[in-house]
Amino acid sequence: MRIVQLANFHTPTSGGLRVAVDTLRAGYRDAGHDCTLIVPGASDAEAGDVRTLRSPRLPGGAGYRVITHRRAVLAVLDRLRPDVVEVHDKLLQQWVWAWSQPRGVPIVAWSHERYERTLPMLLPWAPRRVLGRATAGLSRRTARSCDVLVACSHFAVAEFAPYAAVRPVRIVRLGVDLAAFRPPVESPATSRRLRLVLAARLSPEKRPDLAVDALRVLHERGVDAELTVLGHGPRHDHLARRAAGLPVRFTGYLADRAQVAAELGAADLALAPAPAETFGLAALEALACGTPIVAHAGAAPAEVVAQHPGSGEVAAGVPGAFADAALRLAAVPRGMRRDAARAAAEAYPWSATISAALDVLAPVRI
């Protein structure tokens, strides 16, 4: 089978979406399929099984590019002549649907974001009513313009509840590299200081400010705690100012997964403050390293905690609630919480994700 993947927001330094798309592609190849990825880039280029299309950079400092030339996308599809197109972006999906119908090429659409939750945080100046109408229309068109619709959590599925009769949603949970992310061989020396870690893009929709504010609440309560922030993004300077006077260490973006795993494994607990995560790969990587999480109530990482008791706590999206949850976790013996966190992660190997994704593709292949 010849599969073509389409994705925006895919860069060498981007997070969960890039990891998911690249891991799926490798899994498809291992299963004997031909798979090509089309993504935005600084110039038109071809490298192995990846095609980049010259695309403008989005403002805001996150480094993302978005494909804006519809004809360029469709021209590449015509050359590749796929059996199935797997789309990882709602906007690109609208273009491809009209192309696919006369050619009989099925479209498998993956929903990785909930724009009705993220756009108000990214565009706080925009009228909520306008955003609401726009995102509802996008959800409706997404549900109607594909052959199979895939989401990674019940939280992600909820966006399409009004259209369930038109397009039921398949849940395929993402996975984690259990070999690269694992508890430290030797446990860090016991310390009375509570060590928190945040692994996230430093942008508004990830709510990194909530992690810093929770640390401040802990200090106001007399708790000796510190926070390590893994990642970069447009809110870095704002966050650094917000953290003034607190023991917060910013590592910037870490390309070395072993270094990321070491930082996650050295912490007592990880914070997952984003309210609109549709899966939360960074949270799962922390669990794989034996580090329990504090998850924002309602978002996808909270589903993992609910399904795997002991792997973390769920908190409302306010600093005091996150601080309370952190203290509850800290009261659990270290070995118990590490074992529970790792056990939760082991329920999500990438092999299971790839197997489920192949099951999705099987009925639509030509």
Describe the structure.
By secondary structure, this protein is of the alpha/beta class. It folds into 2 domains: 2-175 and 349-364, Glycogen Phosphorylase B (Rossmann fold), CATH 3.40.50.2000; 194-345, Glycogen Phosphorylase B (Rossmann fold), CATH 3.40.50. Helices cover 41% and strands 18% of the residues. It contains 14 helices and 14 strands. The strands form 2 sheets. An 8-stranded mixed β-sheet has the order 3-4-2-1-5-6-7-8, sandwiched between helices. Strand 10, helix 8 and strand 11 form a beta-alpha-beta unit. Helix 1 packs across helix 14 (350-361), helix 7 packs across helix 12 (319-330) and helix 10 (281-288) crosses helix 13. The relative contact order is 0.13.
Task: Summarize the entry for a quick read.
The chain has 366 residues and is of the alpha/beta class. It contains 14 helices and 14 strands.
- Total domains: 2
- Helicity, in percent? 40-55%
Global Rg? 21 Å
The strand line-up of the biggest sheet is 3-4-2-1-5-6-7-8
Following the backbone from N to C, one meets helices and strands in this order, namely EHEEEHEHEHHEHEEHEHEHEHEHEHHH
DSSP E strands, number: 14
What CATH architecture of the largest domain do you see?
A: 3-Layer(aba) Sandwich
Largest β-sheet summary = 8 strands, mixed
Taken as a percent bin, the fraction of beta residues is 15-25%
* Mean residue pLDDT: 92
Q: What is the CATH first-level class name of the largest domain?
A: Alpha Beta
What structural category do the secondary elements indicate? alpha/beta
Please report the distance between the alpha carbons of the first and last residues.
8 Å
- Described by the principal axes of the CA atoms, the overall outline is globular
Number of helices: 14
CATH topology of the largest domain: Rossmann fold
CATH-wise, what's the superfamily of the largest domain? Glycogen Phosphorylase B
